[in-house]
Amino acid sequence: MTEQDRKDPTAADDVAVARETLLEALNGLGAYHMHACVKCGLCGETCHIYKTDPVPENLPGYKASRIISHFQRYHSLLGRAMPSLVGAKEFTSAGLDELVDIVYGRCTACGRCGINCSIGADIGTIMRIGRFILAETGRVPKSLQAVVDNQLNTGNQMAIKPEELMSTAQWLSEDLQLETGKPDAKIHVDEPGKRIVYLVNPREVKFFPLSLSAAAGVFHAAGESWTMSSKFYDVTNYGMYSGHNEQAAEITEQTIEEAIKLGAQEIILSECGHGFRSYRWEGPNWMRKEYPVPVRSMLDLMLEYIETGQIKIDKAKNTDRVTLHDPCNLVRWGGVVEPQRKILRAVCTDYVEMIPNREQNFCCGGGGGMLSMSEYGDRRVQSGRIKAEQIRATGAKIVATPCHNCADQLLELNKHYKLGIEVQAVCELVFNALADSV
Amino acid sequence: MLTTARILASLAILWMLFLLVYQLVRARGTGRRDYSARAGDTIRGMLYNFTWAMLPSHKETVRLHPFEFTVGVLMHIGIFIAIAKALILIIVPAFNIPISYVLVILLGISVFCAIWLLMRRIISLNLRFMSNPDDYVSIVLSLVFMLSAIAQESGFIDAGVFLIVSAIVFFYLPLGKLKHALFFFVARADYGARLGYRGTYPVRNGGSV
Predict the structure, then answer these.
(1) Which of A280, A304, A328 is the last residue in one of the domains?
(2) CA–CA gap between residue A39 and residue A41 (Å, rounded)
(3) Who among A76, A121, A289 is closest to B35 (CB)?
(4) What is the ipTM score, two decimals?
(5) Is A335 in contact with B34 (Cβ distance < 8 A)?
(6) What is the pLDDT of residues A399-426, one digit of tens each?
(7) Which of A37, A331, A355 sits opposite B208 (nearest CB)?
């Protein structure tokens, strides 16, 4: 499909593309789950959006049923023969337009409903199929698509120019040298032949430089051989949020190729929930090929440094009460559950869990690309109330989260719900706890 | 009449099995190869999803809705009894179940549960909002199925009548939402395997620790 088709599709195009995409998405992925949902309605309280705005439109089962209705129409016997009996619906342009609010605006695809589904239906995946369909029919919200376009056109979501990155790396390096007293501590950029290529969230470069310099400090303390690329260093992939798999694949491929060109033996992903899921799990499937080198989270690497004694820790340097927010894409969808906990227990004197946590954590409200879609801003902050209440109940002063997307949302929740907290990446707490001898 | 009913019920079972398998094969499509490097164990993930993951300690929906969950389980027990009864009557029509009063009591409890679930779907705004006729038809069919099993067990109707009702249920099962009889297992296995592959399942500590 050409860009022109995407911008100005006819009704017939819409239906044909939607049907084709649905069929493609079903292969061994969503059909089992679409057949399984019985609409028992018990999933409501598992969803942060429904809990904060309990209208039927926000029930996960209802949201999924809107996509299942199309599946029924084209891929079930009764849906084809007697559509009204099973609520089967044809794709129409108007129907697809209506789906945008449900799929992008009322679901962060966090997957909590699926984990708790009485049947075991993967509702998050059904919702993602909705995003595939809307993306292919050109209905990605403009604000979200703009971020994807930035990544495709400039290599990073914030359209940061390489010279800007170089300049940031330079002043961060100078600060790091001053802070650590180590003249060789620096942010390495475009240095080929290093063991690790490190991917970061461009928001670290632009808004959270402490996180980048903390990671550099940890690498230096561990004696790590590492570098970043000045062109393709973005750990995020908004193609995953938009649902446009081809674009997501393109973003993944350019970054992996760059890392290989630099001679990486391993790619380390900075703290980013959806970035981890994108590169670690979805990327190879979007590209339909295996990576030539392993990909790991910075959390795994930091834990390795701590457990092997590669870095020395003095936890007395972090005495404030710390709690942890689990990013859905890292934990539920990513399987990285314990490393961050082990690290925080090792580097903080007062670590407490939020309840619920781990695979049962609630989405902060900023997932699914919500932060980039300003049209859903009020709903996003409202749905974050559950997270705000969880944080308040811990009495923590610092909320650690291994995700800059979640960090943005938590900062906004902090302001809106007057939580009085600091939000930090895990590596910042590790860096702060590095023993003086380092 | 019994012979005709047995033949009808048998044909309905064949139809049900054929359609369920057909839909399963179609749902699998060309399958999906996972190109990402495995981090966990798919079998353990699957087993977890059929065991601990269904307990109140690991599943919030069960913990928050113990009554609804219990009612649902009890209703399904009645359906399984009715199915077993139909199968026995098809295979060995003269088979006399010695503890029939126990079955009647169990089926009776299940019938009450089914009525409660039907009422819940009618009364609850949320459920009405997302329900379509099939959601009501499926539960009414299950209700009639269990009632006819009670009636036959108590001697009010012939085995033939019960088998004709069974045939209708078996005929409809793969078409509407009753097909979750198969896809419950398939979806749960698939989800468990995928989360097992990624290392999320099995959950070691539980999310509320």
Answers:
(1) A304
(2) 5
(3) A289
(4) 0.93
(5) no
(6) 999 999 999 999 999 999 999 999 999 9
(7) A355
